[in-house]
Amino acid sequence: MPKKTIDQIVATRELTDAKEPKSRIIISLGMPQITSRGDWVCDVHIDGAEVFPEQVRGVDSLDALMNGINALRWSLMHSGRTLAWPDTGIPCFSGEIPRQVPTALGEEFDKRIEKLIGSEAPRLLRLRKKMVTPYLERAAKAMAASQKTASTRRRRRSD
């Protein structure tokens, strides 16, 4: 299948598959364009994943962008990949693209969701810290070992 090209890219993100750290998954979101029918389209692409839409629609440019972001999130969730940040290996479920809360369900629903998120945030931040800390500790140890090796090499050269 030929690679999809997007004329004007608005945003990109680079990820990797934790099971294949040398692999790269590049997601791209295109500039919304108005169609002859008056609706808007936004190109989306995921290089390195099998499942993805190529174009999403919206009633205006903002709607098309938001639908594009949702499409990228959905596609990453269903890609079968264990996503991670390339430089740290820290897992990033659905590419760290946040879920959008539907607003068409009314103000009461919106307020209940906001309250729920607010009450759960401290617990989830503690959980995230517990999950990420081992990755950061390994990275710090690797960096310290690398600096020690470099320091030893400099001392040997100066002797």
Provide tags for this entry.
alpha+beta
How many distinct beta strands? 6
- How much is the radius of gyration in Å? 21 Å
Low-confidence stretches: none
Strand content: 15-25%
Question: What's the end-to-end separation, in Å?
Answer: 58 Å
Q: What does the main sheet amount to?
A: 6 strands, antiparallel
What oligomeric assembly is this protein in? single chain
* Mean of all residue-level pLDDT scores: 85
Number of domains: 2
Q: N-to-C SSE series?
A: EEEEEHEH
Q: Helicity range of the residues?
A: 40-55%
Number of discrete helical segments: 2
Alpha-beta classification: alpha+beta
Tell the overall outline.
Answer: extended
Can you walk through the features of this model?
- The protein is α+β, with helices and mostly antiparallel strands.
- The chain has two domains: 1-96, no CATH class; 101-159.
- The chain is 43% helix and 23% strand.
- It has helices at residues 61-77, 107-158; strands at 9-17, 20-30, 33-34, 40-47, 55-58, 83-84.
- Strands 1, 2, 3, 4, 5 and 6 form a six-stranded antiparallel sheet that branches.
- A hairpin with a 5-residue loop joins strand 3 and strand 4 (40-47).
- The longest helix has 52 residues, at 107-158.
- It is extended, with a radius of gyration of 21 Å.
- It starts with 8 loop residues before the first strand and ends with a helix.
- The relative contact order is 0.11.
- The model has no long low-confidence stretch (mean pLDDT 85).
